[in-house]
Design goal:
The chain is α+β, with helices and mostly antiparallel strands. The chain has one domain. It is about 35% helix and about 25% strand. A seven-stranded antiparallel sheet has the order 6-5-4-1-3-2-7, sandwiched between helices.
Length: about 180
């Protein structure tokens, strides 16, 4: 059985702003490092793909958010939110996209379009490296998540972590101690 988790990476904010934006939601929030805060909201794991905490943060703070949901270590769903609304969305790795094809074609955007939108919205990263991260076959979706974070110039330590994991364990993370809210 693989890992299922969600987290939201917010650019250009403080931890205090993210805590305030989440309101009474149960979550863990990282310290701000180089202008980046990571939120692990319980609601985002209980409503897969909805990104409720991520949407709340993005709309309240008017900041871009990379919302990630990994399911069973097989699928890495990525959304870039601006003003609380999806600006770009894709599923990685490539074989996961193929499995999720519907009658209209693959789920999500073309990797080149997603990369351009993500780099533009987040104000960091390398489009070419991001396309490679999105199109490289990997064994576990966490590898795709880590590669996407690296390509966007974001910290890679959130890959593999979600609210449920953090609630059960008290790991030492590269960012330092997390703040538990509610």
């Amino acid at each position: 059985m693989g890992s299922t988790y969600s987290n939201a990476v917010v650019v250009g904010v403080t931890s205090e702003q993210v805590v305030s934006a989440l309101g009474p939601a149960k979550a863990f929030v990282s310290p701000a490092l180089n202008g980046v805060v990571v939120a692990f909201a319980r609601d985002d794991e209980e409503s897969p793909g909805a990104g409720l905490g991520a949407r709340q943060i993005s709309s309240t703070l008017d900041r871009p958010v990379l919302d990630v949901f990994v399911f069973d270590s097989d699928i890495c769903s990525l959304q870039v939110l601006t003003n609380g609304e999806p600006r770009a969305a894709i599923v990685a790795p490539p074989e996961a996209m193929e499995e999720m094809d519907d009658d209209d074609g693959p789920v999500g955007m073309d990797p080149e379009v997603f990369a351009a939108e993500a780099v533009s919205a987040l104000g960091r990263g390398d489009e070419g490296v991001l396309v490679t991260a999105l199109t490289t076959d990997v064994v576990f979706a966490e590898e795709a998540h880590r590669a996407v974070l690296a390509a966007l110039g974001l910290p890679v330590w959130p890959a593999g972590w979600g609210y449920r994991h953090l609630d059960q364990e008290q790991p030492e993370l590269a960012c330092g101690p997390l703040l538990r809210i509610s």
